[in-house]
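Subgroup meeting minutes
Present: P.N., E.W., G.H.
Scribe: E.W.

1. P.N. recapped why we're keeping a running log of single-chain structure predictions: easier to compare across weeks, and new members can see raw inputs and outputs side by side.
2. G.H. added today's entry (103 aa).
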Amino acid sequence: MLDPRVGFTTLPFGINDENMSNETARKSIIDFIQRYMNDKQLKVIGMMRGAINYFIFKDRRVRSLADIQGLRIRVAGHGIYEDMMSALGAVPIVLPIPEFQER
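Output recorded in log:
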């Protein structure tokens, strides 16, 4: 899915350390994505693997999406993570990292 606000695409498959460090695999993935971008006149200029995200709560275990339905979950800003939490059924609470203070 291409997010026009930031120019990033999320991939429909996992990128892991092994294929990120393998030049042949990395080139194959970029070529695959580029074929889909050509008709949109977009150019893949690089690939980045972001952090793996976990849900960690003090007093509950998250084993399925049903476990986060309706939960208020802090996100670091407006945008992609806010949209993701909403799509997962959680209630995103935007609190930018510079404003976050441990209590």
